[in-house]
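Suppose you are handed only these lines of text.
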Amino acid sequence: MKIISINTGSSSLKFSLFNMDDESVIASGLFERIGIEGSNYTIKFNGEKVNQQVELNSHVDAVKVLLDKLIDLGIISSLNEIDGIGHRLVHGKDKYRESVLINDEVVEDLDKFKCFAPLHNPANILGINAFKEALPNVPMVGVFDTAFHQTMDSTTYLYAVPYSWYQNHGVRKYGFHGTSHRYIAETVKEMLGKDEFRLISCHIGNGGSITAIKDGKCVDTSMGFTPLAGIMMGTRSGDIDPSIIPYVMEQEGKNASEVIDDLNKRSGLFGMSEYSSDMRDILEKCGQQDEKAIVARDKYVRRVVDYIAQYYVLLGGADVIVFTAGVGENSIPVRRQICEELACFGVKIDLDKNNVRGEVVKISTDDSSIDVYVIPTDEELMIARDTLHLINR
Ligand code: AMP
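From them, the structure of the protein bound to adenosine monophosphate can be written out as follows.
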């Protein structure tokens, strides 16, 4: 069985084609600058990489080129080999608690919920429609970023604001990165060989969220109504006092969306360091004793530790902490600093084992009170698994 996982952005389309017999990636790639000058694609397969400029006026064009290339490059011999298409969908509000076969109702809901994810949901619809046109008889499955977090209870997902905001306008915590956190939860479950465990999953990359997971289910997560909430990120502020917003509007003569834009795109590591949103650059600057970079790194670490500590209490202790995504999988010094700040919980890091990037490794010592792992996330595989599961049902 071959399944293709799709992640559509407003001007991009990422794909991974899986052979689900052994869950291997047959090919993967990215179509960029769709509808913009300079559009191009990259396809990787068999250790080769093809990169080409091509005019892509729409997502329909991108899907057409993708399918043509899969055949031209000999990756598949016929489109009939594609058994299912899995789409990463961002916002399913509180209606979608799990992945679904895509039908007209799902597409209508994506449109209905677009005010909650104005950049992502419309892009997801473009991706769905483009594949519907190209492969009308192949079943499609939608895997929502918000779905995994639907097990949070109302004490957790309600904000302490007028109840009518929730009732009338859907103001509540939704959470994101759910597919990644679910992948981590399932991997840990398989590793432990049991259903009962308390897990704190730290997805820390350019975006970042921490999730408290009990027996495989989300109990709380750090992102909120939007992905702006929670820990400090590459360019996002994470939680701040909301009164800052009207104050800065007045001081800088900006409107609310301009200030929110500053909080999404010019804050976090980038805003604090006035240098870069990329942790590698920040660490390099720290090595040069750059004061702003040092404070940015330390604040980043502090916010992760804050959430781990909070979730430790919420879960009544923790069996496993997992680091994943760009920083979590690759940044040896950041993981070390976080674990050292958790020493009061009895967390002990093994510095040799921590010297690892992008592999599944236990980085805590045998006498650490909590097992700490690095686990590379794989949202594409999770989407392909759900797709296979639903089309076989
Ligand atoms: P993501 O959004 O998951 O792709 O993660 C991007 C983040 O991961 C950026 O801040 C990168 O600097 C960071 N990252 C990737 N590789 C490394 C590395 N070797 N050391 C430190 N940070 C890294």
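What can we learn from it? The first strand starts at residue 2 and ends at 8. The chain is about 40% helix and 20% strand.
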